[in-house]
Amino acid sequence: MKYLIVRLILIFVFVIPYQSFAESDWDNIDKKLFIGLTSTYIIDCLQTKYIFDHSKEYQESNLIIRSGVKQHGKIFIPCYFATAIGGSFLIANELSPLLRKFTLSLLLFSSIYTINNNFMIGIGFAF
Questions:
Q1: CA 119, CA 31: separation in Å to the nearest integer?
Q2: Cα(73)–Cα(29) distance, rounded to whole angstroms?
Q3: Residue-wise burial string across 18-42, b where 16 or more C-beta atoms lie within 10 A, e elsewhere
Q4: What's residue 124's pLDDT?
Q5: Treating both helix axes as pointing N-terminal to C-terminal, what angle do 97-120 and 28-53 enclose, rounded to 10 degrees?
Q6: Is the pLDDT of residue 31 over 50?
Q7: Sequential DSSP letters for 13-73
Q8: How far apart (Å, rounded) are the C-alpha atoms in residues 125 and 123?
Q9: Angle 5-10-15 (CA atoms, 0-180°, nearest 5)?
Q10: Every domain of the chain and the residues it spans
């Protein structure tokens, strides 16, 4: 049942934003920034799962994820990142085109920085 809920959340998060592109003022740069951000969130999700699979070697520094996993188990990880993707879309969709580009670029840079730091200390991916 837990996995069904996660699948439904992931389908909702990935289908709604991409269908909304057709009806919005997002240009190709906005769309590519959001797709890049979504990709980095997915990579970060896989790295986060790796951290919890190798908890003797690594410790998650995000307190929200750490406490969520303690309360709900590893099922919390994809739910957290699905919420981050959906929330990023909802916020960006309400911004002006210029501010949207700035915000998505900032989030993308931050996410790439996090992924790179994880990679540099030896964190891999877990599926």
A1: 26
A2: 37
A3: eeebeeeebeeebeebbebbbebbb
A4: 87
A5: 30
A6: yes
A7: HHHHHHHHGGGS---HHHHHHHHHHHHHHHHHHHHHHHHHHTTTT-----HHHHHHHHHH-
A8: 7
A9: 130
A10: 2-14+28-120
Task: Give the residue from 17, 3, 24, 7 showing the smallest Cα distance to 86.
Answer: 17
pLDDT digits (tens, 9 = 90+) for 43-101: 998 899 898 889 889 888 888 888 888 887 887 888 888 889 989 998 999 999 999 99
C-beta pairs of 10-16 under 8 Å, 24+ apart in sequence? 10/78, 10/82, 12/86, 13/82, 13/83, 13/85, 13/86, 14/38, 14/85, 16/86, 16/89
Position 15 pLDDT exceeds 80: no
Name the residue with tokens 């303690």. 70
Contact of 34 with 88, CB cutoff 8 Å: yes
Query: What are the tokens at 19?
Result: 């269908």
User: Which residue matches tokens 């049942």?
Assistant: 1
pLDDT for 1 equals 47
Rounded CA-CA distance 9/5 in Å is 6
Q: What is the model's pLDDT at position 67?
A: 85
